[in-house]
Design goal:
The chain is an alpha/beta fold and about 220 residues long. It is about 50% helix and about 15% strand.
Length: about 220
């Protein structure tokens, strides 16, 4: 059947709105709300050093064997940090024992060779403070004897721990954090979840601006 100009216009008027609706619906599904796993995490030991509210924060625990664990932090830098550091509210906070200062400086140097490090924040703490900080997250995981965790944790601008409520190492396990030693987990789960939080942040900012204009 020959498609005339008139028929093309009629088809376009029908098809394009339908395609737009499908795309919009897909976007809404992709940006469904990320579950809150621990509400208002107590992070006073961090707030004395750096701003946490009004940010999307990735919290990680370096431990005191940084040289042997650096592969995971390179994964985090490559797959997550470089993807999101351009967004104003995004940041990474890396906590480590004071005894690891030299190893951490080497890690910072290695990461910074090809990376803008402005959104990486490294904080030295004593053993008891690090353990208390991790305990406040209320996860089912613990730090190892070196104070290292292969899991990094996602905090929203209200200091809630966000994650997945039925997607961990098995289908019945809550995902409190993301395994930096798994590139697939960073790519397929953590990246998507950070996009959700940034979308929430942007939507809340727009709504606040609208409310301010009305007032």
């Amino acid at each position: 059947m020959k498609i005339t100009k008139k028929r093309f216009v009629l088809i376009a008027l029908f098809v394009f709105p339908l395609l737009f609706f499908i795309i919009l619906s897909t976007g809404i599904n992709n940006f469904k709300k990320l579950p809150t796993l621990t509400k208002t995490v107590s992070l006073h030991v961090l707030e004395d050093s750096i701003s946490l509210t009004d940010h999307v924060t990735v919290l990680c625990f370096l431990g005191n064997n940084v040289a042997t664990k650096k592969g995971g932090f390179f994964n985090l830098n490559q797959k997550i940090y470089k993807e999101f550091y351009g967004y104003r509210p995004f940041q990474i906070i890396a906590v480590y024992p004071k005894s690891s200062e030299n190893d951490v400086e080497k890690l910072k140097s290695d990461l910074g060779a090809f990376t803008d490090m402005s959104k990486w924040n490294f904080l030295a703490m004593n053993k008891e403070t690090i353990q208390r900080l991790h305990k406040n997250l209320k996860t089912k995981k613990t730090l190892d004897t070196s104070l290292y965790s292969n899991r990094v944790y996602l905090l929203d601008k209200e200091l809630n721990l966000r994650g997945r409520d039925q997607e961990g190492d098995d289908e019945n396990q809550i995902m409190f954090g993301y395994n930096i030693e798994s590139v697939a987990e960073l790519n397929n789960k953590m990246e998507d979840d950070i996009k959700v939080l940034l979308y929430e942040y942007r939507a809340a900012f727009k709504n606040k601006n609208k409310a301010d204009r009305k007032n």
